Amino acid sequence: MSKKRIATVWLDGCSGCHMSFLDMDERLLAIASAADLVYSPLVDAKEFPDNVDVTLVEGAVSSEEDLHRVQIVRQRTKTLVSLGDCAITANVPGMRNPFGTIPVYDRAYRENVSFDPGIPNQVVPALLPTSRPIHEFVPVDVFVPGCPPSADTIFYVLTELLEGRQPDLSPRTRFGA
Amino acid sequence: MSPVASVKTLKIDGRDLSGRQEETILDVARQNGIFIPRLCEMEGLSDVGACRMCLVEIKGQNKLLPACVTTVEEGMEVTTNSPRLEHYRRMILELLFTERNHVCSVCVSNGHCEMQMLGQRLGITHVHFPYRYPQEDVDASHDRFVIDHNRCILCTRCVRVCDEIEGAHTWDVMGRGINAKVITDLNEPWGSSETCTSCGKCVHVCPTGVLFEKGRSVAEMLKRRQFLPYLTLMRKENE
pTM of the prediction? Predict the structure, then answer.
């Protein structure tokens, strides 16, 4: 049997879910023997490849780039996993939502900047009006709440999915876990 | 207790049980270890049927009834759990999650929140409705306590405990529907309230992280609710 292809993606989150992924420690070797990590902030692939079996997506959809990326991920992935509260509820990135984007830009690029303050119009992707959960844009197959989900939870999810089973999450994790 | 105590016999989830006529389905279920979810009901306070989590099926009735305000009747056959009830309970709870800004990960009540725990118990791993992300206030004008309206589910436990137990009636509800909010006095800052006795009962009955003690950080707000049934019982015995 050929190895499965897995990927991880980092949208608007703190990378805590990826830290939790690394916290699987020696169990990463077990994952590596069952699957190849074909795309991730942790590896060097530049472009999201085709035919990915499982993609873990951390973070909310907050910018035009996030939206573009999650759409590509969906097209090229069999099982898309919303990993962590940001991906599922918008969580902390979503706390800007009641205020709109202008105060966010002002705080980041004007109020706290001494050299040449101003909103960037290139390189930095434009914010969407609100930061939102992934499943409001593309269909999601598995939801793994937690902030971040524990390494045990991530290991359980990956092993279940790699063996073709549907993980049962609610006994293992919750919002804010 | 009245001299002529009338006892009703009924079935809950197929079990033959009995309760006094003034008792509710929820009372009898609780006495017999049958779990019915609820967020607004609390032992020691009056019942309002606000959260709708405790809806149950009663044989012969198409309408679902809230167990906390439905008194037992002779021959009643109650079902506390079914795919239909589960569906509605999940839907109600998901709507509560979208109505305001419930950010469990940074909440003072993370890990001790009745709503969060119920979500997990009902198997909610995401919500099917779009989040509203409304702009809500935080009032930290009180010396010892804070209210964060972002986390309020309008259960009105604070209103009832302040009125019925403390006798101050500092809290009340203002506005209707989606604009409803709990207020202190005539919607004045909590810190300048003339009626608040700073007893802290509202803080400890609040099921989520709306009301908390100043200085508590994420997951640090442990609420002590045991005082309430005891206090109510003692007062009844003194009557």
Answer: 0.94
